[in-house]
Write a structure and sequence with these properties.
binds adenosine-5'-triphosphate, 8-stranded mixed β-sheet, 2 domains, binds magnesium ion, 35% helix, 4-stranded antiparallel β-sheet, Rossmann fold, globular, 345 residues
Length: 345
């Protein structure tokens, strides 16, 4: 995709939290470009920095967080470049929601039970200068229809009268209220049953087609991400360790961690009695390991993985990976795929 199509460019972004034990390196030297209309999925286990990265993009980090380095450049509809890290509070308020909206992780379970859905909508609209209640109502009803909700019923409901899946749709509609160019969905289908997950994914796919926004879709499940993404980035311990077109990542992963996520996905290992999973757990980010941060858990690690961090290198069109053993990972992945499912466990 051409350079001028980039709507959000993240360059060498690092974010630390100041904790009692010391600095916790939640995001380390992350770079990527999000193009117009593109869906980028961020995948990785709990604690790998997905939410922190996206709070950083929206400048919604808590006071204990420090954006240590990097640049976030947003291109608006008039083709003006805006450095998000330099916005004043007023410009930042405009940026949030009107330019870039976020559907927060777990928010469907923390809606205020005594506020009507319609008042949530009116409050959000008013906070961003949309004061014509009739217009706001029409826009909300139209969006409710698009996310396949019964518009009138939901508009006048209290959150507790709606199911988890319906509340998530309300939040998706709310995110789209001011017609943003970029929407961040943080684990939008986690904690929903499998059928509800599927219908939310279908809704998101249709919305993206119809409205043409760009999105960042956060998930710990590669199978879910693969259904919606154009591009997938694997995060481990605060770093992007692999990124590429969805089919490359899905069929030809090159990082041992991406392959591990694949083997750990229940939906991708149908017919297997036991999931391989990834042994161990993510490292302590106050004292991260030397070399490749994944080496302790990696079945393919060699001596240099322990001492020298591998750099991101190009292995295909738009496909980059930071792994010394990327060729072996590719072969291992192919061999696993070639086995009949029953022989895998
Ligand atoms: N407010 C905070 N103060 C200190 N450390 C934090 C804070 N928020 C997150 N962290 C730490 O930063 C790291 C990244 O956390 P983050 O929530 O971004 O991960 P995540 O990938 O979104 O995880 P999950 O899948 O569980 O949502 C973790 O080690 C976490 O413990
Ligand atoms: Mg998170």
């Amino acid at each position: 995709m051409a350079g001028q199509d980039v709507v959000l460019s993240v360059q060498d972004l690092s974010i630390d939290y100041l904790t009692r034990r010391g600095r916790l390196q939640a995001v380390s030297h992350v770079s990527f470009d999000l193009h117009r209309g593109e869906t980028l999925a961020l995948i990785g286990e709990s604690g790998c920095g997905k939410s922190t990265l996206n709070f950083g993009l929206m400048r919604l980090l808590p006071k204990t967080a420090r954006t240590e380095a990097g640049k976030i450049v947003y291109t608006d509809r008039q083709n003006r470049s805006i450095n998000i890290l330099e916005l004043n509070p007023r410009a930042l308020r405009r940026f949030r929601w009107s330019e870039c909206a976020m559907v927060f992780q777990g928010a469907q379970n923390s809606l205020n039970p005594v506020i009507h859905v319609r008042d949530m909508i009116f409050d959000t609209a008013r906070a961003h200068g949309m004061n014509n209640r009739n217009e706001v109502r029409q826009r909300a009803l139209e969006l409710f229809r698009k996310v396949r909700l019964d518009p009138d019923r939901v508009f006048n409901a209290y959150p507790h009268e709606l199911s988890g899946g319906m509340r998530q749709r309300v939040l998706i509609a709310l995110g789209l209220l001011l017609n943003p160019q970029v929407v961040i969905f943080d684990e939008p289908t986690t904690a929903l049953d499998i059928l509800t997950q599927r219908s939310i994914l279908n809704v998101l796919r249709d919305l993206k087609e119809e409205l043409g926004f760009s999105s960042i879709f956060i998930s710990h499940d590669l199978a879910v991400a693969a259904e919606i993404a154009d591009t997938v980035a694997t995060m481990y311990a605060g770093e992007i360790v692999e990124m590429g077109p969805v089919n490359d990542i899905f069929y030809e992963p090159r990082h041992a961690y991406t392959l591990g996520l694949m083997e750990a996905s229940p939906r991708l290992s149908v017919g297997r009695e036991e999931l391989e999973g990834i042994p161990g757990s993510p490292p302590d980010l106050v004292e991260p390991p030397t070399g490749c941060k994944f080496h302790i858990r990696c079945p393919l690690a060699i001596e240099s993985c322990k001492t020298t961090p591998p750099q991101l290198e190009r292995v295909g069109a738009g496909h980059i990976v930071a792994c010394y053993k990327s060729n072996e990972v590719l072969e291992k992945g192919k061999a696993l795929r070639a086995l009949p499912a029953t022989h895998l466990s």
